[in-house]
Amino acid sequence: MKDDIERVEYASMLYDFYGSLLSEAQSEVMALYHEDNLSLSEIAEELGQTRQAVHYTLRKAEKALESYEEKLGLINSYRENQKLAALAAEILERSGASKKEATDLKKIINRLAE
């Protein structure tokens, strides 16, 4: 079950990063599935398609998004930046910086990691 949840979360993240590169039909199915949490049957009914057609469009869109990530690596970079930001914040906490300096630096770190 955890793998399914992680797969859906990853697909949602892929859509957030690269969704604008999909066709209109792919984008619509991805949004309905990942953002509106509709089932394939519900999407099929809403779009006037078969469940199989929706499934095919969804899988094709997810494969395209995975391909973009493979080539561009934006999610990988984002995750690495998040880890580095957390590490920098930990170091900052131990540094003995004044409260104002620490707050200002944390804001900068968080902006860099976005």
The gist of it:
This protein has 114 residues and is mainly α.
Which key phrases capture this entry?
Arc Repressor Mutant, subunit A; elongated; mainly alpha; 114 residues
Please describe what this structure looks like.
- By secondary structure, the chain is mainly alpha-helical.
- The protein folds into two domains: 2-72, Orthogonal Bundle (Arc Repressor Mutant, subunit A), CATH 1.10.10; 76-113.
- The chain contains six helices and no strands.
- It has helices at residues 2-18, 24-35, 40-47, 51-72, 74-95, 99-113.
- The chain is elongated and about 60 Å long.
- The two termini are 29 Å apart.
List the helices and strands and how they pair.
Elements: H1 2-18, H2 24-35, H3 40-47, H4 51-72, H5 74-95, H6 99-113
CATH topology of the largest domain: Arc Repressor Mutant, subunit A
CA-CA gap between termini: 29 Å
CATH class of the largest domain: Mainly Alpha
What can be said about the biggest beta sheet? none
Q: Please compute the radius of gyration using only Cα atoms.
A: 19 Å
Q: What best-fitting shape do the alpha-carbon axes yield?
A: elongated
